[in-house]
Specification:
The protein has 15 helices and no strands. It has 284 residues and is mostly helical. The protein has one domain.
Length: 284
Amino acid sequence: MSSTLNALAAIALWATLASLGTSLSHLPPFLLTGLALVVGSLPSWPLVLRDRRAWAVPARTLALGVYGLFGFHFLLFIALRHAPPVEANLVNYLWPLFMVVLAPVLLPGVSLRPLHVVAALLGFAGAAIAILGARGDSAAGGSAAAASYWGFLPALGSAFIWASYSLWTKRVPAFPTSAIGLFGLVSGVLSLLCHVMLEPAVAMSARDWLLVVLCGLGPLGAAFYFWDLALKRGDARQIGILSYITPLASTALLLVVTGRPLSWTIALAAALIIAAAVMGTRAR
């Protein structure tokens, strides 16, 4: 399977994450994140049974994996239930821009050029339009609706975590793709412990279990393995450009699930964020 096909497979799976998270918004976030990440680790278990070195990574690499997988998804699920989901999803997809802006800070030998700055400004403009558009759509809701805007903060935080995690993986020793399963398992167990200590117990329906399994096997499982294989086998710049298909597909699917029309603010915000991300990757 070529690097392009691996990347496209990951993108297709990630496009379903926001919709699945919205459909499961009635579940406590630690419970949802924990169950899905544990399910997502299952494909790598047979590899570990055959060869223990499949999960042999330094403690620093494991800590980075837990930071990325646990932190990103937990904040994203929080955002999707405390802010308008379409706009929160768009803000979350500022992570490609954050990768551009943070690269000279986190990676040695990488500089920031004027085109990078312009791209970053375009991306933040898109996020602002998304937030202001949400405010205009829900203005009739009064103070109760306004209280939900704090949910954009975890959306921004999840974008930062994924960008920094992606960059920091270049500063740790190379690890096998199967180690992604270890990252997911540890992150999932940690999240379930937080659920037991901090959240009320809930009864899950058969539909809930089905969606959690789909979430774990898809965007919180197989997508990470596909993405890691794509980065190991292909040109990271080309794969990065392909990744900007994700916010388009994800937002379109989320609009269908939530029954919302494609307003001009959402369309403009998506266009600005994607254009800025592509511009940032083309600046050398």
